[in-house]
Amino acid sequence: MATWITVCDTCKRDGWETSGADTTDGEKLAALVEAAGATVPDVKIRRVSCLMGCTGACNVAVQGVGKLNYTLGRFDPTEEAAQGIVEWASLHAASETGQVPYRTWPAAVKGHFVTRHPPLPEGE
Q1: By Cβ atoms counted within 10 A, which residue in 5, 24, 60, 119 is the most buried?
Q2: Mean pLDDT, the chain, whole residue set
Q3: Per the domain annotation, does 93 fall within a domain?
């Protein structure tokens, strides 16, 4: 089953308003994540406008049905960050529970975890 990376495309890091940039930092990160994950099996990518983590922009959610789900933030919109996000999501996809051993985490995601959510119950 696929793991989804949801990238907030409205995220703006501090100083964005005065940077003169035409695109948000979230749009930049989303494009980089889409490129990094284009051919990665079991990882799907989508954009959403606002994950409500504005003070910790740039934000992504990593989710899989029946698995632990995570919110990560405080990324710079760089290729290194995008590659790390996709690599970690691939490990999440390969995990039965969504838990990924810390020793296998890419350096680019360390220090960026904000929340972990348990999977939703299967029944009522």
Answers
A1: 60
A2: 94
A3: yes
